[in-house]
Amino acid sequence: MKQATPSSKKTRITSPLIAVPAPSAAQSSILERCEAYNHGRIPHLVQQKYKKMSENVFSFFRGTCHLFYEDWSLESTFKAPPVWICGDLHTENFGSYKGANRLVYFDINDFDEAVLAPASLEITRLVTSIFVAAEAYSLSQDDAHALAHIILDSYAASLQYGKAGAVERESAHGIVANLLHAAQYRTRKEFLDERSDVKKRTRNINANEKRYFEIEQEQENIIATHIEEFGKKNNMTDFFKVLDVKRRIAGTGSLGVERFAILVEGNGSPNKNYLLDFKEALPSSLVMVKNQAVGLQPEWAHEAFRVVELQHRMQFQTPALLSALEMAGKTYILRELQPSQDKLDLAALKGKYKRFSTALATMGKLTAFAQLRSSGRQGSATIDSLIEFASQTAWQQDIVHYAASYSRQVHNDYTTFCQEHTKSLTA
Question: Do 389 and 119 form a contact (C-beta atoms < 8 A)?
Fold first, then answer.
């Protein structure tokens, strides 16, 4: 199948599209800032998002990357080179997946917020996530500081090496290797049986699961028409024959955007069908909140193309069927649906500091790999510039200090948000 690939066409640099300007942080409550950012999303799903954000401080952190970028101030202390970033890096935005070549990889797996920005934003958000989740992971503050340095040491060493690699079964260690082994040997039938039912050799997505919901027939027909037309254009008419469509509820930060699970014929019913994820693309939060560290951005064809294009640049191998589509005035990211369990269960590593540190070192390395792999493209720093940046050391301590300090603000914001949200529900 023809997939979206990096364009060789010269791209004009323009002012970024601002979809929903955020109010002044100094003049707005935490809930008001969240409501401004989520304005225009599906209201009842936004309420589900707020409920999920209220569960614990790490869920709140995952659902509010816009607050992180509204508050950002570290860049004034040192100059970091511009790189392509995924934009919402934290410990749960890494996972295993099968690439288009059907081999299993472990990598960054969420690029909805991807933009060109200083390297410090990406790695600081990852380090901050360790401090925010320290309690959930049963880590002391001393442990969190030590692990933060492990991430940064691995990141800097990989940048200095100057060559991007990949994490696959043969090169993985510890819990990451275990995850990749399990993913490689999971059968398609097992995956499909978890999410669908078979009647008379025909599958249907199981709407009884909490993650899938029925949609109106008219909407299903519109989606099916676009997917099947996409199949025709790519000479894969039989593969993209749509069998069923359901609304899909997944993630935290993206709750409220249009998202669907699509069951297609694939390579044959019932056990060689494919489940696809079809997700609306919105502007990056870094652009929406007018983050001062983010300068002018390339003029993309549309938001879904931006996400797909940058995922191609930053990953060693992209997931199967990754493509960008337009439908009814909106743009969507299409890809093979991946099992939700293909993420690291770091909470299960309580008391296992060495295994924990190995996993985080891998995350630091992958962050560097993504920046090296996409270097020298449309304003991103060259490999030589990244090597020079990595050879310095002062910025690492600045990042640890900022991350530890900002994590305390996240905890305070979380407490405030819960109080404001509860009050809004009873008003």
Answer: yes
pLDDT score for 10: 34
0.85 surpassed by pTM: yes
Residue 115 lies in a domain: yes
Q: Residues in the chain, how many?
A: 427
pLDDT at 27: 57
Q: Is residue 240 part of a domain?
A: no
pLDDT at 365 over 70: yes
Name the E strands within 230-329: 242-248, 259-264, 274-280, 297-298, 323-327
Domain extent at residue 410:
21-186+296-318+350-426
Going by C-alpha positions, the residue among 3, 84, 40, 39 that lies closest to residue 330 is: 40
Rounded distance, CA 277 to CA 95, Å? 16
pLDDT of residue 341: 54
Phi/psi at 335 (5° precision): -160, 165
- Specify the number of domains making up the chain: 1
- Nearest partner of 193 among 182, 204, 184, judged by Cα: 204
- Residue 372 within a domain: yes
Residue 340: its pLDDT value, please? 57
- Please determine, for residue 14, whether its predicted confidence score (pLDDT) is greater than 80: no
Q: What is the pLDDT of residue 2?
A: 41
Closest CA to 87 of 344, 299, 374: 374
Cis peptide before 270, with omega less than 30 degrees from 0? yes
Tell whether 147 is covered by a domain: yes
Distance, CA of 317 to CA of 369 (rounded, Å): 12
- Tell me if the bond preceding 43 is cis, omega within 30° of 0: no
As a whole number of Å, the CA-based R_g of the chain is 21
Query: Half-sphere exposure (CA, 13 Å, Cβ side) for 158?
Result: 24
Backbone φ, ψ for residue 98 (5° rounding) = -90, 125
